[in-house]
Amino acid sequence: MRATVGLMLSHGSVEPVMSRPDYEQNALHHSSLLVLLRGVGPSRARILQRAFEKVRRVNSIKVNDSSGNTRTIWVRFIHDHPVEHNDWGDFQTHRRLLGLVTIGKFDNQTELNELCRQHESLKVRYGSTLYESRAIFFGPDDPNVLETIGEDKSTASRRLQDDYTTPSNFKSQAFFYREQDSCSDLESRIGDFVSALFWVLESRRLERSREKADKVSLLLAPFEKRDFVGLDMESRNNRKRCVGRVMKNLADLSLQAGLVDDALSLYHNANETLRSVGDSLWVGATEEGLCAASAMLLYPQMREIETLHRNSSLQEAGTSPLRHTPEKWRASDATKKVTAPDSTTTAAANANGEVAVQQQQKLTSNSSSCSSVSSLVTTGNNSSASDTPTTSSTTTSSTSTISAAPLSNQRNGELPGNILKAEEITNYYRKAIINYSKYRHAATIETEAALKASRICIEQNRPLDVAMFLQNILYINLSMSEPERVKRFEIITDLYQQIGYQRKAAFFQRLAALKHVQQGSQAPDWNQSYRLMLGSFTGYRLCLDPLEVLENAAGWPALQIDLVQSLITAARRLGHSALATRHMTFLLQTQWDNMSPTEQSEMAVQLQNLSAQCEGSPVPLVLENGTVIPPANLTDLPYCLDFQVKDLPPHLRPQRIKVAKADSGPFLFTPIHFNSVDRRDKKKDKNKIAFLWVQNDLSEVCVRLRNPLPFELTVTDMRLLTNGVVFESLPQTIVLQPHVPTYVPLHGTPIETGQLDLQGYSTHTLGVKSNCRLKHMRGRSFPPNYLVEVIPALPRISVKTSLPQTATFSNLNSADIVVTSASLTLYNGEFSSCTITITNESATLPLEHLEVNINSNVEQELQKKIFRIDEEALLAKLPVPPQGSIEFVVEVYAEADFVCPQPPPSSVHSSGPAAGDYGSSLMSVSGHASLPSRVGSPQHRRQEPQTSSFRSTMSGGQPSLAALSLQPGPSSLGSQYSQHIEAQIRLKYSGGEALTAGYCRQCAVSFNLELLPSAQITSWDVLPAEIASQFYLVLDISNLTAQEMSLNYTDNKNILIEAKESCRVPIPVDRCSLEQVCAARAAEVAENLERELCFRTQLLSFNDALSKLCSEHIAERVKINWLLTGTDIAGIASLRGIVLSQSMVDLTAVSPLQWSISFQDTPVQPHSELVCTVGQRALLSIQLTNDSLQPLKNLVLSIKFYQDYLNGMENYNLETRVAFSGPNRIAIPILEKQEQTQHTCSVIFFTPGRFKAGIECSTNPQQQQQPSARSCPSATNIVGGQLDMFSSSYDEQQAHVWKFIPPIEVTVVEQ
Amino acid sequence: MSTYYFVIVGHNDNPIYEKEFSTVNKEFRKEDHRHLSQFIAHAALDLVDEHKWKTANMQLKSIDRFNQWFVSAFITASQIRFIIVHDNKNDEGIKSFFNEMYDTYIKHSMNAFYKINTVIKSPMFEKKAEIFGRKFLLS
């Protein structure tokens, strides 16, 4: 500010009257000698800064006066002094300029002459008051003597003066120095100069003091001259006035000459004298003088601060002095009040000490007197002690007690009793100001007095008084130029800041700033305005860092907005668009919540306009004065609602390669333990992301943004901000619609492995680049960052299949890892294959590890039958080089259940044999009208004789079509309908470093297999074959395809079936051998023994096992090859899963009973013709052997003759034609293992013809009357098999019937 | 013709309630006026904070002025500052107004849903302020 003053003063040097207050003045300046210190010559004066400082440092000297007393003489160096201020020298002598020091630099004689001329002209200008002057000249360095300067200064300086001579008209004393000279004697020379001034002053004082009271002339303030024209100067009043004024003048001189005590009493006297004549102006002056003299004794430290202050401001001339003003003794906060004085006093004392030390070195020690004075005042002035805590500088006194104690005692005696007490000073100033205020022309004096008063009050720690005096300044009607007015505001600001009234200070600082640029101003100074605005930030609880502002959330938003807007205007007018943009960003960022939506959008538009000139970026800006404007980021524009770190796509997600657990000894790790470890980990690192990212793989973070502005917001160059491993962010540009939350994916690639620290994102919107860090986003529960682990790069593969893709993806588990798909349609029983090509897409990494497994929606067993992969061949092809590819084949077989499942027992049996009825009931049960109803078809009729014996599902008497069960059975592989099998061929692969780290990737091929029904076995039965070692498996096979099917059912038998038709085929099958049965039985027993199950279960499972055995036996032997004629679609239908009833099992398996029958003593061969004659006895001998493993109980052997009419009718009523001798039913209670029994009977035929004999052995047919008696085995007979069917199919009560097949045919001939 | 600018200032120098009372018609009032009043009120806070420790009284009377504007203040027990910037003397009216507003403020702060030091948005409070303003300041 001082620099500014200097600038202004040098500009307007022609001021008419003293209208320019000296704002820097304080009370102690009343005692100083005013010396003008000027740099002359070209503007190189700045080089001489050191010399200036040296001169300024000599601010006081000690002089021994004629009577031997030591006096302290103070000097005040000023830079500029309006000549007319000298006119007030009579009124207050310290306003007179007494000395002149010029400092100049020259390089040649001409320049030296110019310096001398300037010095002389200054001398002339202030000639009326000047006592003495000095010139300090710095000449060019003499290169020859450069090194000798240090040793022999005198020769150097002499030489300089020898080389250059001052002009003849230059009468002043001059000192010559080399430019690099240390000027060590400068201070003593200035000291001499000051003492010279003192002696002149002292002579003036003595002159004045010796003047006779009646001879004195009237001293006048400049504006008074007219007032006293024509007045009687000899009047009593005027005499008194003259005397009083002279006395006051003498007091001023005494004060300057270091005679404070004298001055005090003189002031008191003058005050009384003048008051009596009502000379208000001069009364005011005496009162001010009193204050000054008292303050000089009470607050000597004020001078030190002044010195310190000046020095610091000089050193940093460019910066705002306000910033360097020491924070005054108190803060506005009351709590600090208690402690503040102590610490600050210490600081001040230290500062004092520092200066004092310097002075002690330069001058004979006088600083101790300063400190001692202050301590002494405290003791002597008990009443004021509490009010003036700053004066009780205990630290200072403690450092100087020993040396200063006698001195202070001495001074104590000298301390005038008429000194003003601390609180009186304020009053006196108030009075003085009131007195001055009576004179319009004394406005400047009044202003200065108020400032001096407030400075004293600051010293006294009376902020309210300071405020009062400062308040008053505003109401002093002083005609002044605008810059002066601004200056006044700045001074007020400064003083308010000193007492810690930041808000008041800010108010005036802002006023000053506005005044600088107010309308109508000739040269608006935006620079100053900007500086001041920035300075007032603290007062409005703002600071430059937006983060801090948001953190504090204090202050008055409306005012803050206004201030920042003014600041933006200033910055814009300055042409500093970077600053304007920065401040606008700051405003939007910090005051967003305090603005209305319209304001928000207005500001946003403004920012856009500003940033069009200069783009904002998140770097600190440094002002010319060194102020750093920290970056402002628009973290909430757009507003981030959500920040989600995304996992890699499922098929690229790294997984741990599962290794077979190494034997870890006896220490087991339970899963529970495992989990708890995991949990602990999670707690430890909340922001740790659970999944992994892969080096060199594009990764994603999804951000949900909302545009709070009412217009479209374009965000360009949006990138992720990361720390840790190197990460390459991809820029993203988006346009956000107003108020619509939008998901924005941000991508990037980690280049290294390790931990990646995601901190947020950067944006470029409204022309401003911002770094939006999560930790700065307020009001949302974001962690400060996210940590993602990046693992080494993994290879990537692409998969192709030889099959067409499916339209729909499967809904199997983890369908998300599917990368491609294949679809295949097969008829049941068909074979096909699929070639899968794997290409390693990564540019550098080989594919070293590959695992294939299949997952499907069918059971594992079945799946194994359907899909087959040669894994070994596949593994042999590894590794796959980068960009290479391999192929492998998946064999597919359309495995299906060709056998119609057994209908539920509740089906059709209630319905009668009528075909129509059956058909309808079928419809009602199954509801599948689409299936062809073959009921009543000619083909069916033709087969009817045969079907009568069908027992696949029910009694033989029922029409076999009932077995055409078309239920959409719940079992999965009903083959009537097309069936979908979904499978995933999962590929786990890895390579490179990641493999060693134990990571792999998994992808899958979705395999959609559609199985179409081909052939189906709708019903079946087992018939005895012509030879005992075989039986006939009779199958109803329907062609469910839409094409004609050629069926190959034995080695050489083919049959064609029309589409949707069925036909019946007999297939001779070898019987299931008894060894197998025995083996099965043994296995069963062994197993059951192991399980220690009860007998009942054993028996049950034996039957089951037998049935299963037979079923497998059939399935193994019978393969039905089908071919769709006209195509090459062929397949095999297996009979796996065929269910056999007990009676079928009996036929299928080799009978446990070995028949050996002889007729007429001739063993009966199958299909052999037996002939006998009517009326002759024929001997029928039956021998039974039990070949099975267990005894057979309750056997009934029955022999029945019948006549077969070959039309489906059998006649058993042969009482008139055949007669037995001996029973035809023989009960055999038990037939042990390997036991034989023989039965022989005789038969007599009465009529000729063809007879058949049905010989069978059944278990316990007598008990058929008690079917419900479950404890009794063999409760039912065959005919009542219905019952059997309804109850559980195979249990121990099952009746067995073993027939001798084929039936014996006897041809009876006439005799 | 007189104008009053009443503001309640929270602990962080944040205004929590603002209201203007004026006998002048709205059309004639300058837009800038309120802004200036805000600045004056803010600048006066330093003096309010100084005065509040010097007196046991809640009424701080007229403590500051700038040009033709006076600043009167009132301090509550919880250090909430009531400030009126006015351009004519009306000590009694202001005193009564402050007392009534204090009463109203206390009642409002009793509301469990009101957080101390936040902006007052109650229509009831607004109405009361309106009534007292008319009664004590403008009459």
TrEMBL record, chain A:
<dbReference type="Pfam" id="PF08626">
    <property type="entry name" value="TRAPPC9-Trs120"/>
</dbReference>
<feature type="compositionally biased region" description="Low complexity">
    <location>
        <begin position="383"/>
        <end position="405"/>
    </location>
</feature>
<feature type="region of interest" description="Disordered">
    <location>
        <begin position="928"/>
        <end position="965"/>
    </location>
</feature>
<dbReference type="GO" id="GO:1990071">
    <property type="term" value="C:TRAPPII protein complex"/>
</dbReference>
<dbReference type="InterPro" id="IPR058564">
    <property type="entry name" value="TPR_TRAPPC9_Trs120"/>
</dbReference>
<protein>
    <submittedName>
        <fullName>GL19601</fullName>
    </submittedName>
</protein>
<comment type="similarity">
    <text>Belongs to the NIBP family.</text>
</comment>
<dbReference type="InterPro" id="IPR058565">
    <property type="entry name" value="Ig_TRAPPC9_Trs120_1st"/>
</dbReference>
<feature type="compositionally biased region" description="Low complexity">
    <location>
        <begin position="365"/>
        <end position="375"/>
    </location>
</feature>
<dbReference type="GO" id="GO:0007112">
    <property type="term" value="P:male meiosis cytokinesis"/>
</dbReference>
<dbReference type="InterPro" id="IPR058567">
    <property type="entry name" value="Ig_TRAPPC9_Trs120_3rd"/>
</dbReference>
<dbReference type="Pfam" id="PF26254">
    <property type="entry name" value="Ig_TRAPPC9-Trs120_1st"/>
</dbReference>
<dbReference type="InterPro" id="IPR058563">
    <property type="entry name" value="Trs120_TRAPPC9_N"/>
</dbReference>
<feature type="domain" description="Trs120/TRAPPC9 TPR region">
    <location>
        <begin position="465"/>
        <end position="612"/>
    </location>
</feature>
<dbReference type="GO" id="GO:0000212">
    <property type="term" value="P:meiotic spindle organization"/>
</dbReference>
<feature type="domain" description="Trs120/TRAPPC9 fourth Ig-like">
    <location>
        <begin position="1153"/>
        <end position="1308"/>
    </location>
</feature>
<dbReference type="GO" id="GO:0007111">
    <property type="term" value="P:meiosis II cytokinesis"/>
</dbReference>
<keyword id="KW-0333">Golgi apparatus</keyword>
<dbReference type="GO" id="GO:0048137">
    <property type="term" value="P:spermatocyte division"/>
</dbReference>
<dbReference type="GO" id="GO:0036063">
    <property type="term" value="C:acroblast"/>
</dbReference>
<feature type="compositionally biased region" description="Basic and acidic residues">
    <location>
        <begin position="324"/>
        <end position="336"/>
    </location>
</feature>
<dbReference type="GO" id="GO:0000916">
    <property type="term" value="P:actomyosin contractile ring contraction"/>
</dbReference>
From TrEMBL, chain B:
<dbReference type="GO" id="GO:0048471">
    <property type="term" value="C:perinuclear region of cytoplasm"/>
</dbReference>
<protein>
    <submittedName>
        <fullName>GL18033</fullName>
    </submittedName>
</protein>
<dbReference type="GO" id="GO:0006888">
    <property type="term" value="P:endoplasmic reticulum to Golgi vesicle-mediated transport"/>
</dbReference>
<comment type="similarity">
    <text>Belongs to the TRAPP small subunits family. Sedlin subfamily.</text>
</comment>
<dbReference type="InterPro" id="IPR011012">
    <property type="entry name" value="Longin-like_dom_sf"/>
</dbReference>
<dbReference type="GO" id="GO:1990072">
    <property type="term" value="C:TRAPPIII protein complex"/>
</dbReference>
<dbReference type="GO" id="GO:1990071">
    <property type="term" value="C:TRAPPII protein complex"/>
</dbReference>
<keyword id="KW-0931">ER-Golgi transport</keyword>
<keyword id="KW-0963">Cytoplasm</keyword>
<dbReference type="GO" id="GO:0007283">
    <property type="term" value="P:spermatogenesis"/>
</dbReference>
<dbReference type="Pfam" id="PF04628">
    <property type="entry name" value="Sedlin_N"/>
</dbReference>
<keyword id="KW-0813">Transport</keyword>
<dbReference type="InterPro" id="IPR006722">
    <property type="entry name" value="Sedlin"/>
</dbReference>
